[in-house]
Amino acid sequence: MTDIAKYRFYGADDALLPRIVPEYKGIDDPYKLYDALEKIWCADTCAPRMRDEWSPANKTLGQCSITAFLVQDIFGGKVYGILRPGGNYHCYNVVNGKTFDLTSEQFGDEKLNYEANPEQFREVHFAKEEKRLRYEYLKRKLAEFCE
User: Fold this and answer.
1) Which tens digit of pLDDT belongs to each residue from 40-87?
2) Suppose 79 and one of 23, 48, 68, 140 were both cysteines; which one would form an S-S bond, judging by CB atoms 3.0 to 4.6 Å apart?
3) Residue 8 domain-assigned (yes or no)
4) Number of domains forming the structure of the chain
């Protein structure tokens, strides 16, 4: 049984969802995915524009889109984006009516608005080769973690 009280990401109180793919043995819910990603997220998976600020103390910084699309791969649903200053989108997931954001901790106490945001598509995000490569690296590291 997962102790959800220990999780601080947005929507953690209601993110118990089953995976929809046979891959990633042991990643049975978003909590277990978060636990695995905590060991995998690194400067190499961080968005290049944020790498100088990334640290093990703020592992979720710059990880949003690649994480949200990986969540979509494993649990289904849709990816949405909150427009941020500078014109970039912070990505999060909605699966079976449940909204959660595995990378929300990077914002500290800032409250994000998870209502009425535009859907995000991997074809747009992964048109940037560096982002696609970071996503593929994250997927590969998760697969290795699950072996």
Assistant:
1) 999 999 999 999 999 999 999 999 999 999 999 999 999 999 999 989
2) 68
3) no
4) 1
